[in-house]
## 1
Amino acid sequence: MVAAFGLCACGPAVDTNESEGGSESSGGDTGSTDPSGGSMPQPEPEPETGSTPEPATSTTTMTPEPGSSVTSGGGFDDSGDSGGIDVPQSRSFLIAITATPVSPETPFQFLGEVTTDGFVATFSLTPLTLDVGSTDTPRDPLPPPLVFENIAVDDDGVFAFDAPEVLLPGAANPITGSDIVADLTIEAQFQGEKICGRLGGEIVVPIQLDLAGSTFSGVALLDDGPLPPVSEAQCQ
């Protein structure tokens, strides 16, 4: 806020001379006479000091609530535009979960279907089969999908959710080939054609293992196109 201060410029007092029978100012009457016989000077008109500056204005960014639509101030609306971040209404992704502390070279892979309704997203992640030690063979879908609903997406395309007791079949485990049960926490962001974020939590079966430092990422797929190398789904 800019505060405007008024400036007062008052004129000099006018000299007066007393005379018998009354008082007159030299050069004519310049004001009323007070009881003591002196002339009360009148202030000269205040000179112009310029226009008062307008107060500064600020732009308030609205914080949307789930299910609402904001079309200005960088808001996320139903067109999928979120402050320059491309949030899909419905799109397929190759999703990679890279267990960095265990085996960063062989990420778990999923065929992801992402849909949004206002500020609420649903992720449906179908595991892809992988031979032990492989990143590209055979990569066949292995239903049923893992479905995560009611995920809030903010106006920067950021989302976060917990995924407790996730069961991953051994056929989709390229590290050991064994079934896995894990409690996961995910925080990520839509970034144009990609999803980039981090993954925490721990594997609880067959052994207990901290997953801190792991990543959750993805790349949008072309319609009816082949799956890209998993490296394209990862973020630097």
## 2
Amino acid sequence: MPPAQARSCQLPWIDPVAGSLDLALRCTRVRLTSCMLRCRALRSECGMSPARGLWFRASSSTGVEGIQSAVGCETGRHVGQAAVIPLLDSWTLQTLDWTSPLLSLLVVSPLMALLWLVQRRTGDAGIVDVAWAAGLGSAGILAAWTGDGETIRRMIVGGMAGVWGFRLAGHLLTDRILGDHGEDGRYRALREEWGDGFQRRLFWFYQGQAILVAVLAIPFAVACARRGGVPDVFDLVGVTLWGISILGESIADRQLAAFRSNPANRGKTCRSGLWRYSRHPNYFFEWIHWWAYAVIALPGPSGWIALFAPALMLFFMLKVTGIPPTEAQALKSRGDDYREYQRTTSAFIPWFPRKRAS
């Protein structure tokens, strides 16, 4: 596609439909090359679907009669007193609303600092997990409040994130903080590994969790910015995935809590229910949960950005803060019983167990 050129023009107010911010733009000569932008072929009347394109509206009082498009269209489509000009493909260029991720960081970061002081007195660093889950639930609600997409879709996304986050936070609070299990083994291991520098490094670990909340708030914001009819097939699939994830994670948490509550099971490995088919069914269903927002956001402008959330969470679960430290602690406390569990049971995706050694 040859470079597109525009005649000298002045556009004082340009308003993208996907955003609410008016920008001042003065252009004298514009060159758009194919390596910079993907421009969709415009019809003879310069038409483009608003759902797939980024539209600019310029007041006709500016004297602008049209812009030469990337395919040579000389005139814009006039609607009332405005010229609506399809200029850029929204899959290529879309201004994201960073309001809710940034506000989440501004709120959660000082909260994490406060909880770091709390854990110095209580000796239980696991409170960070409760704050992380509650922070994400709050971030989803905040994205629904500040977003400019369809109201019903924003309510759905905010409700999904809120229910998931606060359910998980409540479970972690009652099971790990208020329960009689003591500090999570992962943090006990960190105390040993970090030694005298534990508190200093733990402070930055807490702040890292605040940053992660802000990063994972982006899929909420992208989904809440999406326009178009509600519900569509992507909304229905997203809500279905969310329902499956909530149900599966809740069942896994309850099954493990019931197993641990029996004193006769101390030092043993839970192999009942979902734990028969996966060593970490709670992680698996939490991962499925992040796909829900990605699917809902996908058809919208820049919706592909939301796909990073399940990819990032999978990396953390499999390689960083999920399975590796959890299983290292399990091997210390349960030894050969857990090694046999590792041999026979899928680590992540639920699957039929292999036969146990005789």
